[in-house]
Design brief:
The protein is α+β, with helices and mostly antiparallel strands and 150 residues long. The longest helix has 13 residues. The radius of gyration is 16 Å and the shape is globular. The relative contact order is 0.18.
Length: 150
């Protein structure tokens, strides 16, 4: 999206746990900031020719609706979302919106669209995910997300 009002930004996240349960570390990541991209710049050509709705678009609607706030919600800054209860999320939300209750399948889709796991609580299973084009008040950006492979 050349000339799209996006910019390069840097974020520092403190307290990310190592996978082995070691000491928290600070992660510094550069990312493309798409929060300034207006909906008019998202071309209609990003639509699926078979008129299928993409996983990120459905996920964005699901998180933003608030109907499943007991299992999935935006973080206060609106740049990431947390699945707080995988069992409830898979039981209610995923079956209705994604036609599956399979936790592994949902993770495959999350990974295929290059969401990054930025926080994980081993005790509760709470997981926070981030993607630079998945922003709370910018649903049109979800249409521009492309999968790596499924």
């Amino acid at each position: 999206m050349a000339g799209d009002n996006s910019s390069i930004a840097m974020v520092s996240v403190d307290g990310i746990d190592d996978d082995d349960g070691g000491d928290p570390r600070t992660m510094v990541q550069f990312y493309q900031d798409y929060s300034g991209v207006p909906p008019e710049l998202v071309r209609s050509s990003v639509a699926d020719p078979k008129n299928r709705v993409k996983f990120p678009v459905l996920l964005h609607k699901l998180v933003s609706s608030g109907d499943y706030a007991d299992s999935i919600a935006w973080k206060s800054h609106g740049r990431s979302f947390t699945i707080t209860d995988w069992d409830k999320f898979c039981e209610k939300a995923t079956l209705h919106h994604f036609c599956t209750q399979d936790h592994e399948k949902i993770m495959q889709w999350i990974n295929a669209y290059n969401f990054r796991l930025i926080e994980y609580d081993h005790d509760t299973g709470k997981a926070t995910f981030y993607h630079e084009r998945f922003l709370q008040h910018h649903p049109w950006l979800a249409y521009t997300m492309r999968p790596w492979s499924i």
